[in-house]
Amino acid sequence: MSSTLMVQARTIASKGDLRNIRSEGKIPGVIYGKGLASPTNISIDAKELALMLRSHANAVIEVDIPGAGKHPVMMAGLQRDALSRQVMHIDFHRINMNEKIKTAARLEITGVSPGEKEGGMLQLILHEVEIECYPKDIPESIFVDVSNLAMGEHLSISDLKLTAGVEVIQDPSTVIVAVLAPQKERTEEQLDAMADEAEEDRKHYEAAQAVDIS
């Protein structure tokens, strides 16, 4: 369990009540999932929530649910204001620590590639990958070592060094980072094609997840 988040119970409220909650520096939310008799409406301190989102949004956290005790949960949904991007509502899903789950892990580049030293441009195609593991094994990030990456070379998901118990569930051949030749030697269409390939892979995964969420 990486952290504990304090929550308060709240009743189902009108739009005016929700505005009052936010004006008090809190964010309304709901907790649901297996092991709970029914969804529980909560509010959370906005500063504590912001800290959690900045540090590790995909972490397993413990919440003390009023009337239901302490439970492990993960963020399942986040609503933001379209203009201000302020968090307006958050959903948490109660999980079973003894069952594998699917979530996302952030990619973190380490090292300096020889290709960059020769004038190439390092391009991170994927910023995170979808993984499956037990909740206790969720990594804060997956390191991508580019210190041996020459000009024109790339690393794929299959090249990632994963900790025990963690499996990436995307296509192993998906490119995650590449050292591109100077811009004048590579067209904008080529760059867009690489980005489109990564986006298409993400959409396929999300479509599969839509029918797999319990």
Give a brief rundown of this model.
This protein has helices at residues 15-23, 46-56, 114-117, 188-210, and strands at residues 3-5, 7-9, 26-33, 40-45, 61-65, 69-80, 87-94, 101-110, 121-124, 128-133, 141-145, 154-156, 167-168, 175-180. It has 214 residues and is an alpha+beta fold.
Distance between the termini: 22 Å
CATH architecture of the largest domain: Beta Complex
Oligomer kind: single chain
How many discrete domains?
2
Question: What's the Cα radius of gyration?
Answer: 20 Å
Please identify the structural class as seen in this structure: alpha+beta
Can you list the strand order of the major beta sheet? 1-5-6-7-3-4-2
CATH topology of the largest domain: RNA Polymerase Alpha Subunit, Chain A, domain 2
Keywords: Ribonucleoprotein, Ribosomal protein, RNA-binding, rRNA-binding
GO molecular function: 5S rRNA binding; structural constituent of ribosome
Family: Belongs to the bacterial ribosomal protein bL25 family. CTC subfamily.
Pfam family, one: Ribosomal_TL5_C
